[in-house]
Task: structure prediction
Amino acid sequence: MSDKPEKLITDDGLRLDGRRADEIRPMKIEVGVLSRADGSCYLEWGKNKILVGVFGPREAHPRRSQRADNAVIRYRYNMASFSVEDRARPGPSRRSIEISKVSREAFEPVIMTELFPKTAIDIFVEVLQADAGTRTAAINASSIALADAGIPMKGLITSCAFGKVDGQIVLDLNKEEDNYGEADFPVAMTQDGDITLLQMDGHLTPEEIKKGLELVKKGCKEILEIQRAVLRKKFETPVEEPEEET
Ligand code: UDP
Result:
């Protein structure tokens, strides 16, 4: 890993990757990239690269995992061994189990599980390249993949982190900022702004949290627009009518 830079924010108020405090990294989304999944999404956010496949609703196995009145949501976050600088050990870790749990919970308020009793909805996340913010990137991609699979939802879930770097509150930390910053605060929310995931690593004052949440709301609004545009493009593509025989 590189040494700690002397400053993470320059005297001009710019971050090392050229962003201002309230700017998110560039995001690129492709939808429907896996032919065997019911829904899928490939998302790049800065240097993060995430692939998500959604399967279901399908009969839940083993049977004892079924719920009589609801679908069960299963979320598996996995880091490819080549996704990080020091090879990630294959298989679940405490970190990946925690991320899977909180991410599943982030979707529970919006997925209409009551429509599909005894079934499972599986969300498989593969982190292909990590550069901080992978859980938030994966949630944004999962939201698109769920919509692509036609899973009924009350709305999209959007996710972004804020943090504290060189004493300043900034949006969407990159790896250097995550490593050497003072705090990281990932959030996910519904399109109405109701928070469905909130975590904190580091120390922040109530005022800093308030300021950060304002930044996150702004970031999530921008991400929601990107998500909506991608889905609109996918679902508004006119179906070609077969030519009439003469
Ligand atoms: N990371 C790593 N090895 C690991 C776990 C994480 O190099 O085993 C890096 C990776 O770039 C990740 C970042 O540390 O994106 C921050 O990890 P964190 O646990 O804060 O989760 P994230 O910000 O990715 O949601």
